[in-house]
Write a structure and sequence with these properties.
This protein is α/β, with parallel strands linked by helices and 628 residues long. The chain is 33% helix and 20% strand. The protein has 19 helices and 27 strands. A hairpin with a 3-residue loop joins strand 25 and strand 26. The radius of gyration is 33 Å and the shape is flat.
Length: 628
């Protein structure tokens, strides 16, 4: 091998065994009668290739087996005689361990002792493209990404589990990929279960021929009842020939075939009901698949496709939520029966929040019936929904990774979730002012210090962070304040007008609501001595901007929705409220997705900027802080 060929090999040893094997074979031949790859002493290329092999658990495990004698000899010789080149490998391993320890210190234990990691780590995220990703999916995705890319130098595969054309759409598929990118998750490979429909069809044939699966035309209700009671199906004794003929009929969409499904022949009355002859193939001749069209009239179920394709794709560790724990023996049954490569399972607790449900079927019902605006509605627990509400991606990642891969199932309050977000946004959110339109009160400013003409001054957008920038604040003799503030004033009381100074209340108009107030400016007054700090806007010297201030409530009135509960009975009748307001002119510069703080009101995400559309107003969504 020439020098440039060796350099190319040094950068090609980071994959799985299938991809690196040709390069190992070339190195084996090259090392015949050679002590070193290049020259008569340890060269840079020797060091690079040795480190590349050492850093890849799949490669180093294979080399140590000694299948390639020359490569094994060279690798061992360099290891024993040149300890200096191991520094880089040890540093990388120490960095990995430090990441695990840091994650554990942050609030969760990541020391899972995953099996056989020395052979390489390949995780996968396996969403069904039948809806948008929700907060539960985010945990599965982030944990799989963490163990693949942070805890270990492994690979993360994204596989869209598109086996049910009745529910799936290309729209959902694209949204899932986009949402993962927004969360900072970059899968190394993207595949689809539908890529393997031919292989899964052959796998089902193998199971039938081996007597491990049978065709069953029992109706759904009867089958459910028989499985629950441990009663054998009347079709369980069909011959292999009958089952093969019916499966062919299912594939072709014949009248007889369409009456049947294929069930794995495992057990009739196993205490674990997941093992009671589960359905592994079913018919769907009516709905075209969003990728394969009308090629197939039969589709594998998750229970069959998951272990088969996981093993086929080289997944080493499959992380999934504890709701699948009962299915783990079924997963293993397929691996053992089909003699497939082992895939290790790890179950973690899904995230449950009070007054929230994550069932895609129920969430879809809210969308379809118009109870919410769509899958990205800020009341929805989807990734797009919580982002539209104002959750930042760094806060989302921090919160979920703090929960860790624990198996303890708990229902969490949203308090900590949004408190984590507040820590992200508070140091950088620019401050603006809004006064409610309804019953706002006019304030006449008098006194020697009152401005003769309207003027503007540059003021900081953030009291503690000069990098956020400045804004123009208008001052004049005519202001507006909120009705609630005006009702709290007493004649002669000294108050503070925020970002201006003190003023003394000289007159409050009678009536309810209050319509006007007169104040005498007293800028020499001590702002620390006043009880009331008041937001205000000048009606002169700036253009006041129309705004909609939206706030949202829980979708449910019950902390935890049980399976038997009627969703309609527990839906909160009022979950969105809107107040019209006037804002300072500085909000015209805001863009969609900007996050601001309205003084004394809270944090808001900009859902619609001033320049968007023809209405010339801003639409702001209130962001929870963990307190409200």
């Amino acid at each position: 091998m020439k020098a440039d060929e060796l350099v190319a090999v040094s950068t090609s040893l980071g994959g799985d065994f299938k991809s690196i094997e040709p390069h190992l074979i070339r190195l084996e031949k090259h090392l015949t009668l050679r002590t070193y790859l290049a020259g008569y002493t340890l060269s840079d290329i020797d060091a690079k290739i040795w480190v590349a092999i050492k850093s890849n658990r799949v490669a180093v495990s294979f080399v140590r087996k000694g299948s390639y004698a020359n490569l094994h000899r060279w690798f061992t010789y360099v290891e024993q005689n040149h300890p200096e080149i191991q520094t880089e490998v040890k540093a990388a391993d120490s960095a990995r361990k430090a990441k695990v320890q840091a994650a554990s210190r942050a609030g969760a234990s990541y020391n899972l002792a995953l099996q056989e990691v020395e052979k390489g780590v390949v995780t996968r995220f396996l969403p069904e493209p039948s809806g948008y990703l929700h907060i539960g999916h985010a945990k599965a995705a982030l944990l799989s990404d963490y163990f693949a890319h942070q805890a270990y130098d492994g690979k993360l595969r994204l596989r869209l589990d598109d086996t049910n054309p009745s529910k799936e759409k290309g729209e959902y598929q694209d949204a899932i990929i986009e949402d993962l990118a927004l969360m900072g998750i970059k899968p190394d490979v993207v595949t689809y279960t539908s890529d393997y429909f031919d292989h899964l069809h052959e796998t089902c044939l193998t199971l039938i021929k081996g007597g491990h699966a049978y065709a069953d035309d029992t109706d759904v209700e009867t089958m459910r009842d028989e499985r629950g009671k441990g009663i054998e199906s009347k079709r369980r004794g069909r011959t292999v020939e009958e089952n093969l003929a019916i499966f062919e009929g299912m594939k072709n969409g014949t009248e007889e075939g369409l009456k049947n499904c294929i069930r794995a022949k495992i057990s009739v009355d196993n205490p674990n009901k997941a093992l009671r002859d589960p359905v592994i193939y079913r018919c769907n001749p009516d709905d075209p698949h969003h990728r394969t069209g009308t090629k197939w009239k039969i589709y594998p179920t998750y229970d069959l496709a998951c272990p088969v394709v996981d093993s086929l794709e080289g997944v080493t560790h499959a992380l999934r939520s504890t709701e699948y724990t009962d299915r783990n023996p079924l997963f293993q049954w397929f691996l053992d029966t089909l003699k497939l490569r082992q895939v290790y399972m790890w179950d973690f607790a899904r995230m449950n929040f009070i007054k929230t449900f994550l069932s895609k079927r129920k969430l879809a019902k809210l969308v379809d019936t118009g109870r919410v605006w769509g899958w990205d509605d800020p009341r929805m627990p989807t990734i797009r929904g919580i982002r539209r509400r104002g959750m930042t991606i760094p806060a989302l990642r921090e919160f979920i990774l703090k929960q860790g891969p624990s198996r303890n199932v708990v229902s969490m309050d949203w308090t900590n979730f949004w408190a984590t977000n507040k820590k992200e946004i508070d140091p950088v959110a620019p401050r603006h002012t809004a006064i409610l339109k309804k019953d706002h009160v006019k304030v006449a400013i008098m006194g020697d210090e009152a401005p003769a003409e309207p003027r503007t001054e540059d003021k900081p957008l953030h009291p503690k962070n000069a990098d956020v920038g400045t804004k123009k604040v208008a001052f004049s003799k005519e202001l507006i304040i909120d009705q609630e503030d005006a009702k709290s004033f007493k004649d002669g009381e000294e108050i503070t007008l925020m970002q201006w100074g003190n003023a003394i209340v000289r007159a409050v108009a009678s009536g309810d609501p209050i319509t006007s107030i007169t104040c005498e400016l007293h800028l020499k007054g001590d702002v620390r001595s006043t009880e009331k700090k008041v937001t205000w806007l000048s009606t002169q010297g700036q253009k006041l901007i129309d705004a909609e201030l939206w706030d949202f409530d829980y979708l449910l009135t019950k902390d935890k929705l049980e399976e038997e509960d009627d969703l309609e009975q527990f839906l909160n009748p009022t979950t969105a409220t809107m107040e019209e307001a006037l804002c300072d002119e500085g909000v015209t510069k805001l863009k969609k997705d900007d996050i601001i703080q309205l003084e004394r009101r809270g944090y808001y995400r900009v859902d619609k900027g001033y320049e968007e559309g023809t209405e010339r107003k801003v639409v702001l969504f209130c962001i929870p802080t963990g307190k409200n």
